[in-house]
Amino acid sequence: MRNRKSIKNSSSKGPPHNPGKLLRIHGVVARDLGIDIVSGRYPTGDLLGNEIEASERLKVSRTAYREAIRILDAKGLVHARPKIGTRVCAPESWHLLDPDVLGWIFESDPDETLLANLFELRKIVEPEAAPLAASRRKREHLISMQRALNGMTDHSLTTEAGRLADREFHTTLLRASGNAFLTSLTSGIAAAITWTTVFKQRKNRLSRDPMPDHQRVYDAIEAADPAEAHAAMRALVDLAFVETKKPRSRKRPSR
Predict the structure, then answer these.
(1) CATH topology assigned to domain 109-245
(2) Distances in whole angstroms, Cα of residue 129 to Cα of each of 15, 52, 102, 221, 236
(3) Domain residue limits, the chain
(4) Can you give 73-99 as a three-state secondary structure string?
(5) Would the pLDDT of 252 be above 60?
(6) Which of 87, 137, 216, 219 is the most buried (most CB within 10 A)?
(7) How far is CA 146 from CA 142, 164, 172, 225, in A?
(8) Residue 104 in 3-state DSSP?
């Protein structure tokens, strides 16, 4: 097992939607180990070691380390058993839509297949939720979506406020579907949207104005037009995926 001197400073960056949140010690340990696992530094089947050795190596209490392992176990990243130890689970066991797990994955660059899979999920969920929202939306949903559009316009997706507004738009749409199971996907879909936007910004890929696409979705839902809502949301997700996977633009050298 790799020799890691201690846990990272607790002021290391957290999820973009809550930058001021300070993690408790066990949360910091879980985050650091989680990032190492999803990045492949700890491959599938790797044994993390016993509680005493690991807590001494990370310079934390045994209680903090034990709680961190419980967090990772609950998220499907490790399998902890008494007298056997804690082993890293295969990616098939990871709870990929858990906001923390998604955030840890996007700390580095996720591979193209994972990005494609994430957008495939969005194309399965959001375009089907949009016509339901168009049929079932209430006044408060329209107010919330319009407020989100205003926030995105005022702040842009390059800012925290703009990304929060984008999350509000998409999560409100899922709630407006009136389907309890679609609504249960809200936190995962919202995290996926936030982290892919952060990824695009990090790679200088936020070159397209997303407002017309969002406005078209809103207009269809406000007009109670299910077919147009489906088409508009499908186009929005498709264009977002194209923007995510496109290569970074390079400026031509001046002559």
Answers:
(1) Four Helix Bundle (Hemerythrin (Met), subunit A) (1.20.120)
(2) 26, 49, 22, 11, 13
(3) 1-106, 109-245
(4) HHCCCEEEECCCEEEECCHHHCCCCCH
(5) no
(6) 137
(7) 6, 13, 10, 17
(8) helix
Question: What values do phi and psi take at 127, rounded to 5?
Answer: -65, -25
Query: What residues are paired with 81 via a beta bridge?
Result: 85
217, 233 Cβ separation under 8 angstroms: yes
Task: Tell me the helix, strand and coil percentages in the chain, rounded to 5.
Answer: 60, 5, 35
Look up the CATH number of domain 1-106.
1.10.10.10
CB neighbour list of residue 81: distance below 8 Å, 6 or more residues apart: none
Task: Find out whether 94 and 101 touch, Cβ atoms under 8 Å.
Answer: yes
The two three-digit tokens of residue 199, written as one number: 């990824």
Same fold, 1-106 and 109-245: no
The 10s digit of each residue's pLDDT in 136-154 is: 999 999 999 999 999 999 9
pLDDT score, position 151 = 97
Instruction: Confirm if 49 and 1 have CB atoms less than 8 A apart.
Output: yes
Overall size of the chain counted in residues = 255
Give the N- to C-terminal CA distance of the chain in Å, as an integer: 53
H or E element at residue 57: helix 51-58
